[in-house]
C-alpha cells in the first residue's frame, strides 16, 4: 500500500509529465515563488491597509505606509529579479543534465 506522501509525489510527477527535470526545476521555482509572494503579500497588505491592527505593533519601519506608485515599482523590480536570478540557478542544472547525457 502506498503512503500519502508517495501518492502526493506521484501527483506532482503526473502534473509535470513524469519528467524529473521539469518537476525539480519548475516545481522548486513555483514553490519558492508562491511562498515568497504569499508571505510578502500578507505583510504588504498589513502595511498598506493597517489591518489587522494587532499585527501593526510588530512593524519595524518608521514610515506609516508607502505610496502605491513606489510599491508598484518595488513589486515589478522584485518580480524581475526573482525571474532573472532563477535563470542563473537553472544554468548548473542544465549543464549537469547535458554532461550526464553524454
Helical stretch tally: 4
What about the largest sheet? none
The value of Rg in angstroms is 19 Å
What is the CA–CA distance across the termini? 37 Å
Could you tell me the strand content as a percent range? under 5%
Secondary structure category? mainly alpha
**What's the helical proportion of residues?**
over 70%
- Whole-number tally of structural domains: 1
* Uncertain residue ranges: none
Question: What's the count of strands?
Answer: 0
Order of secondary-structure elements? HHHH
Shape: elongated
Mean pLDDT value: 80
Annotation keywords:
single chain; 102 residues; 0% strand
Can you lay out the helices and strands and say which pair or pack?
Layout: H1 4-15, H2 20-49, H3 53-56, H4 68-101
Structure description:
The protein is an all-alpha fold. The chain has one domain. Helix content is 78%, strand content 0%. It has four helices and no strands. The longest helix has 34 residues, at 68-101. The mean pLDDT is 80.
